Amino acid sequence: MTGYNIALVVLICLCIAAGGGYLHLRRRLARTRFAEGIVRAMPDVIFLVDDRLVIRDIINNQHKTLSAPVSSLIGRPVTEALTPESARQVAGNIRSALSDDKVHTDRYAVRHKAGPRYYEGRYKRIGPNLVVCFERDVTEQHIDLTTLQQSEQLLNAVLDNMPMPLIVKDIDDDLKYVFWNKRCEEQGGYTREQIIGRTDLEIYGRERGSRYREIDRRIISEKGSYKGEEIYTTPDGVKHVSIVNKNVVSNNLHHWLLATRWDISDLIRTQDELLRAKEEVEKTQAMNQLILDHSDNGLVFLSPDFIVEWENVGKYSHHPRAARYKKGVCCYRNIRDQESPCPECVVRKAMLSGQREKKSASLEGIDIEMTATPVFDTAADRHTLRGVVLKYEDVSLQRQAARELQAAKEAAEKSDRLKSLFLSNMSHEIRTPLNAIIGFSELLAQTDDPQERQEYAGIVSRNNELLLQLINDILDLSKIEANTLDFVLAETDVRGLMRTLELSSRQKSLRPEVEIRFVTEEVPCMLRTDQNRFMQLMTNLLGNAMKFTEQGSIRFGYELLPDGTWRFFVTDTGRGIPAEKIGEVFKRFVKLDAFTNGTGLGLAICQHIVERLGGRIGVESEQGRGSTFWFTLPGQETKPGKETEA
User: Which pTM does this prediction carry?
Assistant: First the structure.
């Protein structure tokens, strides 16, 4: 090849090389312009910041979102245009970006004359000491988001503070709880932390949880609603009754199950209490009505214009006037046949005085006391008269009782006088045998005549017995008054006691001509009784017979009556008792003959002993022909008020 050719080839090669470089430059320019177009289309302002937080360059400020001209910002610290809090955020993100290759994102505020603007920044290291910052104005988004958050907070606050439990379950997430307000916590016994994100099965267990899920699934499948009463027990052991409403709600993207629960436990308790109170009121009213209807008083309620509003006089009394009190009638017209109230009307007086008024009257032999009581609206308000309660009370029995009380008082005074007389007589009765004992004892000591000594000794002995009897009667009376008279029960051979009494009575008798005889000696008698008290009874009765029988006989004995009781008797042919005094012989301190020695207590003590042994005592007498004193004792074991076993 010639030199020319070689030069031509070299030239051609240079031309080709030059053309290739030009094409490469064109391509680079095109890519740069394309990249610049992409950057200009971005809503972000791009900052280049070094490791000293100084702005090195600002790219793409065509949106005019910066608070100052670009030229005034380059070379200045990036934190100068920020609030202190935002400056700390941006500085922290830049330093974090310099330390690794990650993209760091954050939001912050920038001061503007018109108010703060909010930016979203993304930070990425592009060199050892350089970070590129993409800053986007998100003020509108921030305002919208803040407004949305505030609305959500308000809505949540409203829902959270509803006066009833509100529950929301996520249908698209296995019916997990997503909302549980305060009332749910208060009534359900579970906190939000225990509920949110969990299912009924996890919270309540299989039995209760499956029941809830079954209801929820049915509502969802039928796209309907549910309302029902549910009874459940909270973890604290309290049983609750509630009305539950459930509905499906959605926004075409998501589906929820909304439930409200109205706890009616307090309402049911209140209803039960009201029912019980109503029943109690009705029961009280019925009882009051029953009491009024069965009271011994007739009641009438009259209005201030004398109209009968309520009465039970007809049920209380069959008196003809009682039938005239009818509901709705005017009392003085219907009862008195008058055109105005009587001046002496007790109801009228109570209305005028404002106080309880009373009046007594006798209606066809019945003693009546009428009481009129004014009724006012309240105890403090004495001006608004509601009416008058008129009470008719039959006081016949009370007045009879008063008369009987007066008679009892007079009898007690008489008894007191008799007791005083008794005490006076006792001193005389006791002195008489004492004087005899003392006197004849002295005579007995002075005489040597055997006959006189025997006579004096007999007198002393009889007066000793009389004095002992007086003292025993007084002691027994005191025991009766104190209810301390003792009884000792034992199997007693009554026939043997009667034989002994027959012999001892004959020996004591001062009248040998009077026959003393036990007339039922052939009849055996075994009795469970107090032997000493029995002997006291018979001795008293025989002693009285011997005192008042001057001739004839004294017969005593017993007989078994058809009802199984034993009747004991002492029959004499003495003076007898006047008919008008037979009812007094068993009273205390009564003496039918003032000239006969004795306390007047013997028969009263006998009556008390017989009654304590379960029997009765009586007398049959005819003046001038004699008397029969008798008493009965049960054939079986008796139990007096105070006894001991022998």
Answer: 0.38
